[in-house]
Each structure stands twice: as structure tokens, then as C-alpha cells.
Specification:
The protein has about 350 residues and is an alpha/beta fold. The protein is built from twelve helices and twelve strands. It is about 45% helix and about 20% strand.
Length: about 350
């Protein structure tokens, strides 16, 4: 069900009959149209108009030939802009003019025959409550493992929630993001996983969020993992820490189908720590230390990301051709190595 947004209709007096029909269509769609017919007799007109505009979730100027020549329509537009209200012009047979030229319009037939469909096809929720801006620019250098996890999680979430986009997850790493627990950060599994090098609650939280956000993409768009289950995890972490990480990874693998998940086991996985989501962004870490990778380059330059996708797929296919395995076979090998 659509939220009953209050929508202020700004129009020229000559278009009153037209706007009456617009208001009826909006009301039928569950909205609450606000316009000057709502003003009670004896009320100060200008003050009431400003009050209605300030109460609106969305400002909708009905731009017609008549409206373009009426100064008070543009005054109302200026007031709405000053209040930083979302603006959705209805252009009746022509483009928006002057102050609203920078706003995307709905182009409506003069008989309003396409208005209902145009409104239904518009994400009013994203106009009223705009999505968060992209968490990074085209190229960002992250200098701590905690910030790395935070940015990857934010980007994965932003792609889905703001752009409606999912992307295949490609990872070349020792164990991958899917070796991170999904359990509460207070769960003892985190202590076992970390061995003698405990992480802060804040670090655990962003790691968990990274795992969950990445998994949303993997389940929707698929996943390719290039990992090395025999890779060491550091002298300060015992075999139990390694076993817990691999058990998390196996748990994820068991939840995926052969169509969703492809895995290659190879020492080449240790050549880098690379995560690519669709052709949207990549995160490549360098400078590994006991506490994690100290520097990560996050790149959202589309041609560069696409080139990395091609390079990843080429290596993945080469390694898979050398030693083809089903997902069940991969799981069996990993579990055998866990002891």
C-alpha cells in the first residue's frame, strides 16, 4: 500500500477543471491532494497557501501553457524550493520552465489519460525520502580493516536499497567474506574465530554487516569464489580459529545451489584479496598484516571494474578447467582439511 503522501498542487486558475481531475486521480491512488479549494472562506489566502505547501510531502506544479505565464505559480515553486521540498512537475504537453527546469517531469497527455499510470510508475517514496548518497567516489583508499568492512557493507547495501541493483559476487581471497559469522557479535564463536587477537565490538559489527550485505547479492545474482582453504591465518590464531572460519564458509556453501555458487580451490587465491560486486565496484586489499589488510582500494570506475571482472573470470575459468569440481566435492575437501 502506498503511503498517503500530502501533495500540494500548484496551478493556474484557468486550469481549475483540469486540476480538479488531477486531485481526484491522486485521491483514488491513496494520496492527499492539497490545493486552494481546501482554504476556508475568510482565511488569509497567501498565508494558507504557504502553510499547505510547508505541510506537503511533495510539491506538484501542474505546468501548462496557462501556468507558464502566471507569476504566482512561479512564486509557489520558489517557496517550495526554499523549503527544500521534493518537486514533481506535471508537464501538460510541454517541458517545465525556468526554476523547475532542473527537475524531472512527468509528461502527461492533455486528457490526463496516462496520469494514473505515470504516478504508479514513479517511486514517490524515493522522492519524498531520497536515498543515501553513494558511500564513496570513483576511487577511495581505505587504511584500516575496520573501515574496509564498513565501506564494502555500505556499498553493497546502497546498491540494493538506493539503486535496486544486485551484482554477482566475485572473491579471490584466502577464505572470503563468507568465513565471517552471521551470529550476534556477543556470540562466543567470534572469540574462537579471533584467537588471541580480539577485535572491538565495532569492528565485529561492520564485519558482520559486510557479510550479510554481500550475501544478499550472492543469493540474488550468484557468486564465484577463488579461495585457498589451506592458507594459514596467522601465528597468533590456533587451528580452532581456522576450523571455525572454514565451518562458517562451509555453512554458507551448503545453503547455496550449484547454479548459485561456483568455487575454485587454489593457492593462487592468496595472490590478492579482491572482492567485486557485479560491475559496480571492486575492493582490492594490499599490505596484509596480522590484524588484516592495512590498505584497500575501492574502485567504482565502471570500465576499470569491468576489466577486473574479465581478468577474474579468465583466471577462474582457467583454474576450474584444470581441476573441475562440483560444490559437493569442494565442501568435502574443505571438511576433510578441518580434521
Amino acid at each position: 500500500m502506498t503511503y498517503p503522501y500530502r501533495i500540494f498542487l500548484s496551478y493556474a486558475r484557468a486550469d481549475k477543471d483540469l486540476v480538479q481531475r488531477v486531485a481526484e486521480i491522486l485521491a483514488d491512488l491513496g494520496m492527499e491532494p492539497l490545493w486552494d479549494v481546501n482554504i476556508q472562506a475568510g482565511k488569509p489566502f497567501t498565508a494558507e497557501i504557504k502553510e499547505m505547501i510547508s505541510r506537503a510531502h511533495l510539491f506538484m506544479p501542474v505546468m501548462s501553457v496557462n501556468a507558464l505565464t502566471r507569476p504566482w505559480v512561479h512564486q509557489e515553486i520558489g517557496f517550495a524550493i526554499a523549503l527544500n521540498l521534493p518537486i514533481l512537475p506535471l508537464s501538460i504537453g510541454q517541458l517545465p520552465d525556468q526554476m523547475i527546469a532542473g527537475h524531472q517531469s512527468l509528461y502527461i497527455h492533455e486528457d490526463l489519460s496516462n496520469l494514473e499510470q505515470a504516478i504508479r510508475s514513479t517511486r514517490l517514496d524515493l522522492l519524498v525520502i531520497p536515498p543515501e548518497p553513494k558511500p564513496i567516489g570513483l576511487l577511495t583508499i581505505i587504511q584500516s580493516p575496520e573501515d574496509r568492512a564498513k565501506k564494502i557493507g555500505e556499498l553493497c547495501t546502497w546498491l540494493i536499497d538506493s539503486m535496486g541493483a544486485y551484482g554477482m559476487v566475485r572473491i579471490q581471497a584466502r577464505y572470503s567474506t563468507f568465513a565471517i559469522p552471521t551470529a550476534s557479535i556477543r556470540d562466543s564463536i567470534w572469540d574462537v574465530r579471533e584467537g588471541n587477537r580480539k577485535r572491538t565490538d565495532a569492528h565485529r559489527r561492520v564485519l558482520r554487516e559486510e557479510r550479510l550485505a554481500t550475501e544478499r547479492h550472492a543469493r540474488k545474482a550468484g557468486c564465484k569464489l577463488m579461495i585457498d582453504h589451506n592458507a594459514p591465518i596467522g601465528a597468533d590464531r590456533d587451528n580452532e580459529a581456522r576450523r571455525v572460519r572454514l565451518s562458517m564458509l562451509v555453512e554458507f556453501m551448503r545453503s547455496m545451489s550449484d547454479n548459485q555458487l561456483k568455487v575454485v580451490l587454489s593457492p593462487r587465491a592468496q595472490d590478492t584479496n579482491l572482492q567485486i560486486v557485479g560491475d559496480h565496484f571492486l575492493a582490492e586489499a594490499v599490505g596484509h598484516r596480522a590484524e588484516g589488510y592495512v590498505n584497500t582500494i575501492i574502485n567504482a570506475h565502471a570500465p576499470t571494474v569491468l576489466r577486473k571482472v574479465s581478468e577474474f573470470d579468465r583466471l577462474f575459468d582457467e583454474l576450474h578447467a584444470e581441476n573441475p569440481m562440483t560444490l559437493a566435492q569442494v565442501i568435502a575437501i574443505i571438511e576433510q582439511s578441518m580434521g
